[in-house]
Structure formats: C-alpha cells, structure tokens
Amino acid sequence: MARAENQGLQIALIVFVMLTIVLAVVTFLYVRNFQESVARNTQLEKAAQDDKANALKMQSEITFLMERLGVDPKMPVGQEKKDEENAAGTVKGIFQDDMKQFAATLPPEKQQYRGTLESLWNTNQELFASNTDMQNKFKELQDQFTRREEERDRQIKEFRDKSDDSAKDLLDRQTTFDSDRQRINASNEDLNSKLAQKDSEKSQIADQAIKKEAALGNEIKTLAQTNLLQNEKVKKLTKSHFEVAQGVIRAIDLNGGKEGNVYIDLGREDQLIPLVTFSVHAKEANTSQGEGLKARIEVTDILGDHLARARILDEDFANPIAPDDKIYTPLWHPGQRTHVAIFGTIDLDGDGQDDRAIVKDLVTSVGGIIDAEMDPLGKITGNIDINTRFLLEGKIPTDRDANIGATAMITKADQAGVERIPMSKFVELSGWKDPRQVVRFGRNGTRERIPAEPKDGSLMRTATPTDAANFQKRRPYQPNKPVKADKSDTE
Q1: Nearest-CA neighbor of 273 among 377, 367, 179, 133?
Q2: Spatial separation of the C-alpha atoms in residues 104 and 116, rounded to whole Å
Q3: Residues linked to residue 337 through DSSP beta bridges, in sequence order
Q4: How far is CA 222 from the centre of its chain?
Q5: CA–CA distance from 462 to each of 47, 201, 357 (Å)?
Q6: pLDDT in tens, 65-83
Q7: Full-model pTM
Q8: What is the DSSP string of 141-181?
C-alpha cells in the first residue's frame, strides 16, 4: 500500500517536473519571440520614418520639377499608358501635348524637354543664319539694282547729250544752208548775166545741197533708231527688278487646319499685308513665265519682320509644295503699289458672265491701283503712263468702238513701256482660286467636305439665309491707324 502511494507521488512528481520544463520552454520561446517582435517593430518604425522622409523629399523634388515645368504642383501626374485617354488635365497629358506640338518631327529618343529645347535652339540658329544670309543677298541685289540705275541714268544722259549735240549740229547746218541759199539768191542777178558760164556751178551747188539734206535725213534716222534701242534697254532694266520671285516657302504645317498652312519669308518689314495671294513654283522654275506651278496660297497672318503664315488654296498633289519653293505674284512688290490697266471682256469661271469686279477686287484688296479701264462699250477712263506696271488683256469684244478702244490702250501701253499680260496668266500668277467647291483628294481631302449635289441639277447651290448673313465682301486692306503713346508709357 505504501509502495503504491510512493509510485503515485513519483508519477505526480515526474508530471510536475515535465510540466515545469514545458512551461519554462514555452515561457522562454514567448519571451524570445516578444523580444524579436519588439526589435522587428523598432526596425519597421525606423524604416517607416525613413520612407516618410524619402517620400517628403521626393514630393519636394516633384513639386520643384512641376514648378519648373510650369504646371500646378497639385495636378496629378497621370495614368498608365493603357489609360492615356484619361490623361487630359495631368502632367503626363500636358507633356504629351507639348511633344505633339513642339517635337512631333523629332525621333522618339529626343522627344523630351531638353531635346525639344535643343532642337528649337538649333532651328532658331538656322533661321537666324538664313535671315542673315537673305539680308546680305538682299543688300547685294539692292546694290546691283542701284548700279544698274546709275548706269541707266548715265546712258540716258549720254543719249540726251548726243541728241542735243545732233540738234545743234543740225541747226548749224540748216543755218549754213539758209545762208548759202540767201547768197545764191543774192547772186541771181549776176547769174542771169553769166547764166551760160554759171549753169554748171549752179547745178553743182544744188547737188551739194541735196547731198547735205540726204546726209542729215540719214543721221536723223540713225538717232531715232538709237533712241528706240535706248528705250528698249531702259525697259529691260526696269523689268529686271520684277522678273524674280518675291520670296520662298520656309516651312509647311499640315496640321494648321483643313486646308493646310505654309510659312513664307516675307513679313512686316517687307510691307506684306493679309489677303495677298501667291502662286507657288518649283525653286528652279522661271516664276515670271508661270513655269513649275505647284499651288496657290493666301496670306492669313503676319508673324514677324520676315515671316508670315498662308493657307493653301489649291495644290497639285502630284507635285506637292516643298521648302525653298519660290512664290510669285504680279499683284504685290515689297514697298510698292502695283498700277494696272484693264481692257476687254473678263470671264474667269466660264459661266458667260463678266468677272471684271473680281479682278478689280483682286487688285485693290492688296493695295493695287487701277490707272485705266475700258468698259465693254469701249469707253476708256483713266490714263496709262510710265508708272503703270501691267496692261491686263481680256478678250477683245467684236464691237467696233470697243475694238478701237482696246487698240488705243495697247498703243499707249507700248509707247509707255508697259508690260502686256493675258488675263488668264495674270490670274494664275496672282494665286487666285475659283471659289466654287470642287471634290479634292489627297491629304487634305475628306468625304465630309464634298458638297451635296443640288436636286435641280444646277451648278451652283443657292445660299441659305445663314450663309447670306455670314457672307462678308472682300474689301481692300486698311492698315491700323498709329496710336499715340501715353505719357505714362513713355516714362
């Protein structure tokens, strides 16, 4: 019985010792895990503080960069590439818009702000160098023109001096001839008594007088021919200044609108004005002869001293506009007002109606002046003089009075050295475009721009009340009046 009790105590003691050991182990493990958790928590708190400091630093850097980019620091940066449609109003959207506008022609690796600034700087330097070169060329051409003007004046002076000398010599010879004749008449009484002896002498004197008159007549013809040649030289010297293109295409902007825009090297200092139309020619073509015609453009905005924007009115897509193509118009010259004269029937669009008003509006809208004009009945108003640049030749009417009037204007133009140009060529070189809509194909053509055909089969559609209200007649360009500077502005 006592042994059984001892065994029970032993078992209880063993169980107690085992439980004590287990409890000690569990307590040890719990304390170690707690210490590790505290250490890990301390590390995590330090890492969180470091991350917060880094986040604040990065946010400060992001704010600095966004301020330097010129955007609101509170603006969201943007979405992922798959959500680019929602990028509007974000930094990423602004960046994409800037790259489309300013760096669309750059390679992908250069489509960033430093690459864009570098490209714009290089382009600006090239334009500056090109502008300097053009100014030097212009000065050379101006000097050349001045030398030609001086040579022309010298030749004219020589011709006038020669003409004066010839007139003086002719007067001296005529005086001598009159004196000889008076002497002969005075000696007629003596010759009557000595007629037999003096017949041979009288015949000789008469022959000499005839020879002198013939010689003087030949000399007058020679001087008249010399005068004609000198006039031809003066006419060529006068025309040479206008046989070159006024400018060139600088750049092409196909995103400038439905019609497309180009930039030309004429501007404010060239006294260019809006609404001037030009014909575009290949850079190696003779513009004054209408060769190499590619397109027609109209000036819309004056952007700088030697820079303007123009919209494309019409273009040959088989031979598109390219940089350095030449532009020409007989309507406008830098610093000058073009004077023209008009005669004949004018039908530009083949509808059988006289389009004289269109041509007059085309000339006057860019500051041109109509010196003389003949109406369909042959009545002439105005006068042609040496300041008239072109005689615009329409179709000569069959009416007798109109035919006589046209002949008179042609004769007067030839006498004044005025260049005659057919109306069709003048309109083509002026860059005028038929306003009627036509179906166009190519990079600017869209189906939506093709006008619907009228149900009645007519060629022209009838304007709606809205169209009539929005229509504005093309008027001559009127420069803005100068504004007096306020005293506070000058100070």
Answers
A1: 367
A2: 10
A3: 332
A4: 48
A5: 78, 94, 21
A6: 777 777 777 778 765 444 4
A7: 0.37
A8: HHHHHHHHHHHHHHHHHHHHHHHHHHHHHHHHHHHHHHHHH
